[in-house]
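Reader question, answered in our methods column.
A reader sent in the components of a multi-part assembly and asked whether the whole thing could be modeled at once rather than chain by chain. We filled in our standard form and ran it. Here is what they sent:
COMPLEX SIZE: three components
ENTRIES:
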Amino acid sequence: MTNNLNPRQREAVQYIDTPLLVLAGAGSGKTSVITRKIAWLIGTAGYDPAKIVAVTFTNKAAREMRERASKLVGSNVKGLGISTFHTLGLNIIRSEHKALGLRSGFTIFDAEDARALVRELMQRDAGGDASLADTVQQAISTLKNDMVGAEDALALAKSPREMLIAQVYEGYERSLRAYNAVDFDDLILKPVQLFNAHGDVLARWQDRTRYLLVDEYQDTNLSQYRLVKQLVGVRGALTVVGDDDQSIYAWRGARPENLVQLKEDFPNLKVIALEQNYRSTGRILRAANAVIANNPHVFEKKLWSELGPGDPIRIVACKDEQHEAEKIATEILGHRARSNGKWKDYAVLYRGNFQSRLIEEKLREKQVPYKVSGGQSFFARAEIKDLMAYLRLIANPDDDSAFLRVVNVPRREIGPTTLEKLAQYAGKRHVSLSTAAGEMGLGEVLGGQYREKLARFVHWLDDVRQRLHRLPAKQALNEMLEELGYEAWLRSQTATPQGAMKRYENVTSLVESIHTMSEKVDDHGKRPDIGEVIARLVLLDMLDQQEEQDDSDRVQLMTLHASKGLEFPNVWVLAFEENVLPHRSSIEANTIEEERRLLYVGITRARRQLTFTHAQKRKQYNEMLRCEPSRFMAELPKDDVRFEGEGTQASSEEKARSRDNALAALDALFKR
DNA sequence: TGACGCTGAGTTTTT
DNA sequence: CTCAGCGTCA
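And here is the structure of the entire assembly that came back:
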């Protein structure tokens, strides 16, 4: 159970006397420690698997943890409580929804839904400006994560701006309540509020949480921190794993100081640092240690490895951004031809998504297969949002937001004027749009033919709802799509037939997932209803899963943020310059330390080779700007760094290298 | 309803 | 520059 672990890891696995903080350096095998610990708790310490709760931030991490833990424990384990924070919150809300004033079938608003609602509220109440809406939505989310309610926000507002935010916040909360809906932030916040108010409910959940493990603790925000504290209670059966040096999400509410706070919350806290790195060469780790040593630390930590010093880190000066991209593409091509390695062993990391464009161009030119990660999530696609809105409305007739999305998609000749009158009537009667649409009294404010169209729509929804109870999900949904004429609608809305086909395939794949989830019985032998299925779906990134299976051999392009948790044999980091890394706005906001951590994350992604590039000048919008090398360059250990392309004269070594690259590229071309 | 042109913003983003 | 979102016009 604890073989193949180093002494520190083993200690972390077996330690249960007091709360434990595992400071897991990059590449130190933290997932192993968590999964082994789960297995050890069950197998050796005799814990009930159903009462072990392990939380992560991403579905991917949860999936990986579940797979590895079940393999260790044996797949006969029922009810291993491994999930994301949000899924844990959803589980709590689902079983306690009555106490929270939610009716069953409640909707989960995703970020886009929330944004749309804020937009609408601002248009109506504040006569506003949509670009402001995004800022306001962010602000509301931040307030919620900081556990500041709408009333508090109103009371605390000091500026007109804060006042506006607080007012929209209030309307936003009112709307969610009316729609029988919660947003992502509520999934954590509501359980915390509930536990605060009802000690008996909390006691029940504490009893179901005999041991709690939290991954990436440095990324927790205030409400997540509270939830952890509540669940742990006085028992202190807690292991958190984190790395303060990899905290790169403070800008979206993460509080790395929660790590330090643990010491105060639990005076008997045990701290174990995992410092042996199994990923990178000595020079790469030396660079990482040297850079991060410039940040203040509460917990000291120094990565080391047994993999030998390896190659020097290269810093390549380039003339401009074209040269830089060209150089990276050529180097990858050359290196891969020489080493006969795989494309996916190469990663290009950058600060902002837009920086992928040039590299993409150059890689395409050279016919190098690549993959850009990041981009539209599955659930952000219009066709998926449409279908999800239909399902939301079926599960939750009070979801006005879903009603408005689909009432005229495909066209039902229900226009804005009709909807406005419907909304007025619904408002007066204090009912939802879909309830109002079915009421006879609506005839008083709306002409017969319009009322008729609305009534037909809600009756059809009722009909589909009943069929969903009766029939297998796939059949009911396919009938629904057929009756909607959705495929034809997509064809009419999409430029190319191929595009339409692709989009309809997305729809079919969603139907397939829903079907599978609906058929799956839970631990109590019950099948989930449609409300439950779609609630879980919203929290599931299906794109993630598609990507997981996609093991295609391609060069990886992604932001430094997106690279966290990944590793690559060969890494290039672009634009190692002032105003990029560190980013201009971070310099202005005085958040250099987080920028340094971002660099630290970048460095520690590399297993064997690490190259930074920087350009002397760079075209920004339409003017050429001079670029200064990053201040962080001076923090790298000189002995481990080799500078290339300084000045105009290329070193003989570099000439040789570029000749080699050219030859290798030529060679590769002939082979193809 | 759809096409066109104006305006403004331009770091990172899971759930 | 480039893209998104909005308003205007046919």
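What stands out: Confidence is low (pLDDT under 50) at residues 648-655 of chain A. The first helix of chain A runs from residue 7 to 14.
Send us your own complexes using the same form.
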